[in-house]
Specification:
The chain is α+β, with helices and mostly antiparallel strands.
């Protein structure tokens, strides 16, 4: 993901964070896990951290951080994203702090 230079929260949003990185890790992630709890899904965080260097990366691949999460099923992810708690607590942070991102689904072996 690529963070915005500064968060762009809607006027009056009560949980606005001072910078985009804290908006993601404190705001979005907290809301995301609250949504997980609401729908009874337990995703597995595989990796979260800053991108150091891109190997064979193109000009549009200048990411700030990389996050890899494992779900038991796509339906589990869908349940989280469709929840009221996600819409209220996580989504506003995502829109305010993320400038660009890629969502890549894979199947493990």
């Amino acid at each position: 993901m690529r963070f915005r230079d500064a968060p762009d929260y809607a006027n009056g949003f009560a949980d606005a964070k001072p910078d985009s990185r804290s908006g993601y890790y404190e705001g979005y992630v907290g809301g995301f896990y609250a949504a997980c709890e609401e729908v009874g899904v337990t995703p597995q965080l595989v990796y979260a951290g800053q991108r150091i260097h891109g190997l064979l990366a193109g000009p549009d691949d200048d990411w700030d951080d990389i996050v890899v999460v494992r779900y038991d099923s796509f339906a589990d992810l869908r349940a989280i994203l469709d929840s009221e708690v996600y819409a209220r607590l996580a989504k506003p942070h995502r829109f305010a702090v993320i400038a660009d991102w890629r969502f890549i689904a894979t199947r493990g072996r």
